[in-house]
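Protocol step 4 of 6: structure prediction from sequence.
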Amino acid sequence: MPKATAAGGGVWRPLLSVIVPAYNAAPYLGRCLASVAGFGPALEVVVVDDGSDDSTAELAEAAARAQPGLRVLRQPNKGHGGAINTGLAAVTGLYTKVLDADDWFDRQALSSLLAVLAGLAEATPSVDVVVTNFVYNNVARSRPRPVRYTRALPAGGPITWRDVRRFRPREYLMMHSLAYRTELLRGCGLALPEHTFYVDCIFAFAPLFHARSLYYLDVDLYQYLIGRPGQSVNESVMLERIDQQVAVARQMLDQMRDQMRSPLALEPGQRAYLLHYLDLVCTVTSSLLLRSGEAGCLARRRAFWRDVRDLSPALHRRLRWSLLGTMINLPGAFGRRTSLAGYRLARRVVGFS
């Protein structure tokens, strides 16, 4: 079993801190916490009860009494981003990963990750991001679907953005894939919006501007439950919360615009990947505005792209006239029907949800 490691001044730190944002998660929390139990001082778990009004906090505190290394923080409801912010301020591990309370880790894969982190703890310079695979577990389907990065990322050792191959449309890093060096997250000033859904897109985007090195571990670690009613990535819920999707996309656009004006140089592969991910987020946003069917949705979609153009003409050209941007913004009634058909296909093939 990998052990915790010594930081400056001889203070021992966990190799990995896992933040578990939890809101009314009582039906799922037991499986989640069981998946991170028993790994000793190498693993710290911080459950952030985000103002639940069910038994989430009580279940978490019972687990903490039985599970060394597990802490529970309680706060008034601040949303997913607010819970992650609270957890990030509290963790002590060398690396930090988020595990939503309705998801779980594969325990064998977690053991492999901790073993890799034990080696990376001695590395100079430090590796900024560790990437692992995740698995879609759809309640309506019997067969899980893993998402792996073997084509885009060389596995088994530290790499830089120069080693990263081009990501295909169905390949992108999600929050579920990423363990960041904790000091990178704090140093880049990450602060997620409160009371806003879809902030995981920002978590998987903004810190990567500051990441210089990566490590890809080809294990299916994160088990992502999708398809349950009321889930934030359920399409009907996304349509109800389209304003929040637009807000997240606009914040990411602001971050990309600011970087384009910044003297902070990005590696070509790093810049290409960040634009690729932003292209996907803008495509989903534009698609949902079209899909909503509400009066004025076409005007709102035009306004979204007009805002992108006003923000940065160069960014607008790159995103609006990309392959995805062109396909999802075809003109006329026939074009809109074609765009919607493409969006539905993309949800199945690319895995937008």
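Step 5 (inspection) to follow. Residues 235-349 form one domain.
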